[in-house]
Amino acid sequence: MTEDDFLKDLFSKLPSGDAQITVPNGDDSAAFTPTPGMQTLIACDQLIEGRHYLAETPAEICGAKLLKRNLSDIAAMGGIPRYAVLSCNVNSACSEQWLKDFHHGLLKCGEEFSVHLIGGDLASSPGPNAFSLTITGESAKPIQRCGAEDGDLLFSTGEFGLSFPSEHHLHFTPRVEEGKFLSSYAKAMIDVTDGLLLDSQRLLKASANTLDLTFLTQEIPARNFLAKDASLKESFCDGEDYELIFAVGPKRVKELIERWPFSTKLSKIGEFKKGTGKILDDEHILLNFINKGFDHFQS
Amino acid sequence: MTEDDFLKDLFSKLPSGDAQITVPNGDDSAAFTPTPGMQTLIACDQLIEGRHYLAETPAEICGAKLLKRNLSDIAAMGGIPRYAVLSCNVNSACSEQWLKDFHHGLLKCGEEFSVHLIGGDLASSPGPNAFSLTITGESAKPIQRCGAEDGDLLFSTGEFGLSFPSEHHLHFTPRVEEGKFLSSYAKAMIDVTDGLLLDSQRLLKASANTLDLTFLTQEIPARNFLAKDASLKESFCDGEDYELIFAVGPKRVKELIERWPFSTKLSKIGEFKKGTGKILDDEHILLNFINKGFDHFQS
């Protein structure tokens, strides 16, 4: 099978029926008509063998994970995910079947979240297989990382810690529906991929370090795996939770809690106060866990 | 320097002043307001060490080449390039300085073509350094690969062959301005990246194999390097020309030639006739060069 044949075979499996796609996959560029009045969101994320999945991880799960990582970025803006383009950089040991299964997993996940794959590139090189996906979405008013103010509360979806041993990092549900709902409540929002502590710091830095964040450490929902709750350090520092954390004004808290329509856990885990970018625990002591978030230049 | 510091340093160098960017680089997703009445184009392409550049190729040139490869895809739709997001997957031997120089080359090229880098991802793994860039563009009416008809002529920009020995593949100018101009003349268009022969076949296949294409082989402009013109085989089969080929209706040919405002060579190199997807030379003999275009599953 040639590359063109592979892609043709793949394209024929793509769901049709999105009237806004004007040039589908298979041309030099794909094209779509943006929804009037909406802003276009765009983000990209990678999936690399040995880092985000292991050689023995089923290919379908890998494909789905790559898309879900990107869906989490759109969720963190409160956006509606729309289209994806995929780069594959695979070695000669990567079989056609593995790659088909990978695409199958990605397309199935795309169907679930109404995302259409409309473009891509396939190349090969030695070294670990690596994939990069760019996702687009739309929103009338994207929720940024900045926007928290003195007196706001920090809320979270879901649970934190132990993502790798529990395989949550492969089987998570990106909080797309929750993000859409939250777009009318959250003043600032981020998805937690590099650990609750590091991503909270990013939220604080985005407010130009004019705030401190005091965590209600007793309220942080710890993931339970094999009858053991994640420790506070694991909840703060393990990566790949793919949950949302967001600032809510004190006047909206009651309404948010009452109207929350999801089975996903909703927790009030912190408070913002005027400050200089410090993160404190509930005894107002600086949180001093080592930042274990992934860092290319440090690791 | 941490990854966040690197990215912050990078973001501060990004050109500002595009009023349609509503959320710049540095949030979970970037956001922009699409131009009313325009379709959004999207395409992605990769740059891999050892395949698209060598370890000794200057980093700035690598960064520019990646963007130019993508610009060529937008040019092939007759579109206006707008925004880019970049995935970097680099090994531990890749220095901070190299990566800064790479970004510098990409940003400088972006300035030249009015493309803004608005998002990205940085990861590391062993193996060759690999980069993937997604570009967006816009067009009121994108020129697709399909659309050629019986009696149309095939035109080309520029010259073909010897792209690697001449280093054309590093120093080419993507035909963005030519593509925009051609959007009111071309009925079908593609950029030649995998060789004139293979990309012509793609143009023919897009017309559902209802056409044959007869090349005026004497008219194909061969690249001259070190006082030697590319052979016919080199012109047809070498890759990475980054030129446009396109179908023009016979009634528009005179006007196209008279109004062509560029110094870029414009050549009439073939004719479309009713048929079954065959490619012939000017003696109506099937062109039978081995297809040397890159193919993941064959190479």
Automatic annotation (TrEMBL), chains A, B:
Superkingdom to which the source organism belongs: Bacteria
SUPFAM superfamilies according to UniProt: PurM C-terminal domain-like, PurM N-terminal domain-like
Residues holding substrate: 52, 240, 294
Residues bound to Mg(2+) 5: 194
One annotated GO biological process: thiamine biosynthetic process
An example molecular function term from Gene Ontology annotations: thiamine-phosphate kinase activity
Pfam families membership: AIRS
Pathway given in the UniProt record: Cofactor biosynthesis; thiamine diphosphate biosynthesis; thiamine diphosphate from thiamine phosphate: step 1/1
EC nos: 2.7.4.16
Binding residue positions for ATP: 120-121, 145, 193
Residues the entry annotates as binding Mg(2+) 3: 28, 73, 191
Positions with a binding annotation for Mg(2+) 1: 45, 121
Residue numbers binding Mg(2+) 4: 28, 73
Domain PurM-like N-terminal, first and last residues per copy: 26-137
Keywords noted in UniProt: ATP-binding, Kinase, Magnesium, Metal-binding, Nucleotide-binding, Thiamine biosynthesis, Transferase
Catalysed reaction, written as an equation: thiamine phosphate + ATP = thiamine diphosphate + ADP
List of residues binding Mg(2+) 2: 45, 73
Transmembrane segments: none
Function field: Catalyzes the ATP-dependent phosphorylation of thiamine-monophosphate (TMP) to form thiamine-pyrophosphate (TPP), the active form of vitamin B1.
The family this protein is said to belong to: Belongs to the thiamine-monophosphate kinase family.
Further comment: Reaction mechanism of ThiL seems to utilize a direct, inline transfer of the gamma-phosphate of ATP to TMP rather than a phosphorylated enzyme intermediate.
Name recorded for this polypeptide: Thiamine-monophosphate kinase
Source species: Lentisphaera araneosa HTCC2155
Record lineage: Bacteria, Pseudomonadati, Lentisphaerota, Lentisphaeria, Lentisphaerales
